[in-house]
Amino acid sequence: MIASPVLVVARQVMREAWRRRTLPVLALFGCGIIIASAFLSFFQLGTEIKFFKDVAIAVIFLFGAMATLVLVSTQLSGEIESRTIYNVLSKPIRRYELVLGKFAGSVVAIGIAVAPMVGILMFFMYVDQGGSLLEAAKAGYMLWLSFVVLSAVALAIASFSSSIVCAALSVLVYVASYLKSAVIAYAGMVTYSRLAAGAAQTFYYLLPNFENFNVRMAVVHDQVVPWAYLFRTTLYAAALSAFFLYLGTQIFQEREF
Amino acid sequence: MQPAISVHDLAKRYRSVQRSDRAALLGLTLDVPPGEIYGFLGPNGAGKTTTIKLLLGLIRPTGGGGTVLGHPLGSVEARRRVGFLPESPYFYEYLRGDELLHYYGSLFGLADRVRRQRVDTLLRLVGLWDQRRLSVRKYSRGMLQRLGLAQALVNDPDLVILDEPAGGLDPIGRREMRDILLGLRERGKTVFLSSHILAEVETVCDRVAILNRGELVVVGRIGDLLAGGREMELTIHGANGSLARHIEAIPGATIHHGTDATVVVVPEQRFVYPIIDLVRETGGQIVSLGAKRERLEDVFVKLVGAREDGTARSDGGGT
Question: ipTM of this complex > 0.90?
Fold first, then answer.
């Protein structure tokens, strides 16, 4: 069977994620903390399952984001820094295929790393009769979608920067994206300048709104995440990822090695 | 017949924010005939690696252009038929030797069965069959170089571009590398070989181009470059002081006293006969006598060194 270069690179990224052991170790730690929180939550009388769900989703968010940043920020820039890029780009692969392959491999690997944590969350919810398993699965999916977008953002940054700069900038974008509503509100309160307001607006629209993927409170309080919202957020993630990947491929296309 | 590589007025200038722009290649025009081993020589910083990167599309030219196997420089179509071994190759350390070759083979779109067969053949060819399941991080420098050659041949390329292929290889490894290159030529492949080991180049190459400071200094068949000298070389046992005085009187002659013998080089054949008479008279012995064969190293030093001196002089004059 002949695989496309995108698939070949994606498989390679997944193999790298497994062999370097960073992703499995992070997933293992995450699973351990979720299991520990399941037992700790028995001491929280009356609110134990809510406490557990809250902690578990926060752990998936934290370890998933860490796994994404560690894996993706070393992809393109890692190839350049370790000079393996010469061997790859001298083969008949287009540069955008390399970027797409890195992206595809990363998001699948991250999905595989996050899945056991979501599985443990669902298992304890099932044992405790503590809410809808479907809603927990939806929360896991939404978190993974946020990691997909974060991967695209990190790859766009990696297309012009080193691994360390990529990781640092990606964290900055991630944090800023969560804080942006507050930033806009603050900018609106403290300034009457149209320029400052315009800059704040640009900032608001340029950054992805990662809050859209946060359904933690809905799951904790046994609310239903509507399918329409899930669908809309999926489209939002696809559009954002496409935009950042396009940006990344364009920048990477112009780079010289 | 279409050249394997054809570049015209190829130029590359690196832009720098902090310093002034640096010209790495100044209008290189070159045709590499197919089916030959073509040596690409030059001192450090001459522009050899820049040229190779331009051929593969790793960087873009700031002037001129060309073709590789009839396709534009750096195009996917060209790269499909090219094998490349970079200088000091780096690989994914978490992969095994055979996995690495399979990965690169997959990037060429080789079918599973063909790829397996090719990888096995190449691992045996470069002498890494027994180490194929070893992690690349455990490979020595020489083993990495062998693996680099194997990955450059994984697509059975029509053109092989090698940047310092003998780096890190022991004498046996070098000999094996030479045999592989000669084998490629026998199969009608073109080899574009950038190397500092001039004795190696002289042995295997049909033709060479010498580059210096981004400019082509000379290009031609090895035989043509090394021919044309009229100098004669004599090796003498038991030479004495009178011989040295005689040689010193001949313009352009040189004398070198070794531990066992004295080597004399005279500019023309007519100077040889008086030396023979003198050696016989003084009880010495002529061990060997023949036309002095120039080595590629001599040509290289003469051409590059002369230009370096000239540049140094003109630079000196300008300051």
Answer: no
pLDDT at B308 over 80: no
Window 126-185 of B: residues touching A by CB (8 A cutoff) are: 151
Amino acid B277: pLDDT: 86
pTM for the structure as a whole: 0.84
Q: How far is A153 from chain B (nearest CA, A)?
A: 24
Q: What is the CATH number of the domain that holds B283?
A: 3.30.70
Contacts of A251 (CB under 8 A, 6+ apart): A156, A159, A160
Asked if A3's CB is within 8 angstroms of B106's CB, the reply is yes
**Of residues B127 and A46, more confidently modeled:** B127
Per CB-CB distance under 8 Å, the chain B contacts of A91 are 79, 104, 107-108
Contact A150, A239 (CB under 8 A): no
- A-B CB pairs within 8 A amount to 72
pLDDT, tens only, B83-126: 999 988 889 988 999 999 999 999 999 999 999 999 999 999 99
In a domain, B103, yes or no: yes
* Residue A179 pLDDT exceeds 50: yes
The answer to whether A82 contacts chain B (CB < 8 Å) is yes
Domain count, chain B: 2
Residue B318 lies in a domain: no
Domain map (residue ranges) of chain A: 5-172+213-254
Mean pLDDT comparison of A144-148, A191-195, B308-312, highest-scoring range: A144-148
User: In this complex, do B80 and A3 lie within 8 Å of one another by their Cβ atoms?
Assistant: no
B285-291 β-sheet, strand order: B254-257, B262-266, B232-237, B285-291
How far A23 CA sits from the closest chain B CA (Å)? Answer: 14
Q: Please tell me whether residues B181 and B246 are part of one structural domain.
A: no
The reply to whether B111 and B250 lie within a common domain is no
Per-residue pLDDT, B199: 84
Contacts 24+ apart (CB under 8 A), B252-257: none
Interface membership of B111 toward A (CB under 8 Å): yes
Contact partners, residue B65, CB within 8 Å, separation at least 6: B7, B8, B9, B10, B72, B73
Could you list the residue range(s) of the whole structural domain that residue B27 is in?
A: 5-221
Based on the fold, state whether residues B152 and B286 are members of the same structural domain: no
Q: What is the pLDDT of residues B130-144, one digit of tens each?
A: 999 999 999 998 899
B67 vs B204: CA distance, rounded Å: 25
Q: Which residues of B touch A92 (CB under 8 A)?
A: 76-77, 79-80, 107-109
A101: nearest CA partner in chain B: B107
For chain A, say whether B21 makes contact (Cβ under 8 Å). no
Q: Is residue B302 part of a domain?
A: no
